[in-house]
Amino acid sequence: MASGTVTSSEYISHHLTNLTFGNHPENGWSFAHGAQEAAEMGFWAINVDTMLWSIGLGVLFLWFFRKVATSVTSGVPGGAQNFVETIIEFVDDNVKSIFHHKSPVIAPLALTIFVWIFLMNLMDLVPIDWLPFVFAEMGVEYMKIVPTTDVNATGGIALSVFALILYYSIKQKGVSGFLKELSFQPLPKIFAPFNLFLELVGLLAKPVSLALRLFGNMYAGEMIFILIALLPFWAQWVLSVPWAIFHILIITLQAFIFMVLTIVYLAMAHDDH
Amino acid sequence: MNINLTIIGQAIAFFLFVVFCMKYVWPPITGALAERKKKIAEGLDAADRAERDLKLAQEKAADDMRSSKEEAAAIIEQANKRANQIVEEAKEQAREEANRVKASAQAELDQDVNRAKETLRAQVGALAIAGAEKILEASVDEKAHAKLVEKLAAEL
């Protein structure tokens, strides 16, 4: 809720600003006071809130799954094991239906992507003022609790996936095979430069689309929550409840899409054309 | 939307999470799943086998029952036959015995009748002679008329 002294645009921009720590040209190593300063810090700055929340959620995910994995039984599973097994089988089914090679990496990778991104997206359903308010009371100026509304978070994962695409393409086909694949299709060999250009654009579009799709969806969703929060407090539920319910679908779907596309891209990297 | 060091940090965190997941989370759980799948398959197999065994045992029991019934029926039949045979034999024996007794009685009777006849004949001869003697008032030579008397007696 916007307090009296804060204008709507200030409120919105406050909620869309990360807690950035970096080397400011004038202030030196410090937390940025506002988006302007964060932008001036350039590349050598780090969004502390994104890092903390994403790593925290990742650790939570792995801690829970590891706890189940240590006490796992092939007999009658308990509640937590049932839950974990359901997710793992869901991921495994998806991997098996798309990816037809043997790889010890793909399935755990898909699981990590799905659950981690889902948890990060889930933070979107926490009422948007609660945690920033708590942190503001503790003297922390900015706090964006949904890591996937930060393009760095989605970009980091997408870049890693891109690196894996390159790695597996070269591992499976060799450098020359990979280059041949990029140059000798879809048009005949004489058009090799044109083909190469086309395929490189397509290749680069993969991580960019992965990162921006997730970022865009979550950013837009967050934005709508922020706009709803500008309404008088007694009217907010009329819009925020339906949007939150709809958002449950979106956050799951986005995590699922990210996972499936990753599997598809890596399957393509393994396949010979 | 500033691209900064966070993107590298996220990539590193992601990498570590994937490695951890790959080493410590995925294998034990999928292992347990595979093991359970195997157990269930074995259980179903065992159930199938048991069902088949049960069916076989039931068939065998029914077979045994049928064959023992047949055997019992055969034994009863045989016993009945034997009993009839014994009764028949006894009847036959009795009939033979009766016939024999009857035959011997008949023979005795015949003998008696013959003897009586003989006696009677002899007596008739004597009586006839005596009668004739009385009638003729003369002694008739017994020896001379013996033939005639015997003839007469034989005609009686």
UniProtKB/TrEMBL annotation, chain A:
Membrane topology: Multi-pass membrane protein
Alphabetical keyword list: ATP synthesis, Cell membrane, CF(0), Hydrogen ion transport, Ion transport, Membrane, Transmembrane, Transmembrane helix, Transport
Top-level taxonomic group: Bacteria
GO molecular function, a single term: proton-transporting ATP synthase activity, rotational mechanism
This protein's record includes keyword Oxidoreductase: no
Compartments reported by the entry: Cell membrane; Membrane
Gene Ontology CC: plasma membrane; proton-transporting ATP synthase complex
InterPro entries the record matches: ATP_syn_F0_a_bact/chloroplast (IPR045082), ATP_synth_F0_asu (IPR000568), ATP_synth_F0_asu_AS (IPR023011), F0_ATP_A_sf (IPR035908)
Claim: Cell membrane is one of the keywords in the record: yes
Broad class of the protein's primary localization: membrane
Example of a GO biological process term: proton motive force-driven plasma membrane ATP synthesis
Family matches, as Gene3D superfamilies: ATP synthase, F0 complex, subunit A (1.20.120.220)
Positions of transmembrane segments: 43-65, 105-130, 151-170, 219-239, 245-268
Family membership: Belongs to the ATPase A chain family.
PANTHER family: ATP SYNTHASE SUBUNIT A, CHLOROPLASTIC
Function in brief: Key component of the proton channel; it plays a direct role in the translocation of protons across the membrane.
Protein's UniProt name: ATP synthase subunit a
Species whose genome carries this gene: Marinobacterium halophilum
Lineage: Bacteria, Pseudomonadati, Pseudomonadota, Gammaproteobacteria, Oceanospirillales
TrEMBL record, chain B:
GO cellular component: endomembrane system; plasma membrane; proton-transporting ATP synthase complex
Keywords assigned by UniProt, alphabetized: ATP synthesis, Cell inner membrane, Cell membrane, CF(0), Coiled coil, Hydrogen ion transport, Ion transport, Membrane, Transmembrane, Transmembrane helix, Transport
Pfam families linked: ATP-synt_B (PF00430)
Predominant subcellular localization, coarse grouping: membrane
Entry keyword Ubl conjugation: no
Coiled-coil residue spans: 40-115
Classification via InterPro entries: ATP_synth_B-like_membr_sf, ATP_synth_b/b'su_bac/chlpt, ATP_synth_F0_bsu_bac, ATP_synthase_B_chain
Membrane topology of this protein: Single-pass membrane protein
A GO term, aspect molecular function: proton-transporting ATPase activity, rotational mechanism
Description of how the protein assembles with itself and partners: F-type ATPases have 2 components, F(1) - the catalytic core - and F(0) - the membrane proton channel. F(1) has five subunits: alpha(3), beta(3), gamma(1), delta(1), epsilon(1). F(0) has three main subunits: a(1), b(2) and c(10-14). The alpha and beta chains form an alternating ring which encloses part of the gamma chain. F(1) is attached to F(0) by a central stalk formed by the gamma and epsilon chains, while a peripheral stalk is formed by the delta and b chains.
Protein's job: Component of the F(0) channel, it forms part of the peripheral stalk, linking F(1) to F(0). The b'-subunit is a diverged and duplicated form of b found in plants and photosynthetic bacteria.
Similarity comment text for this entry: Belongs to the ATPase B chain family.
Name used for this protein in its record: ATP synthase subunit b
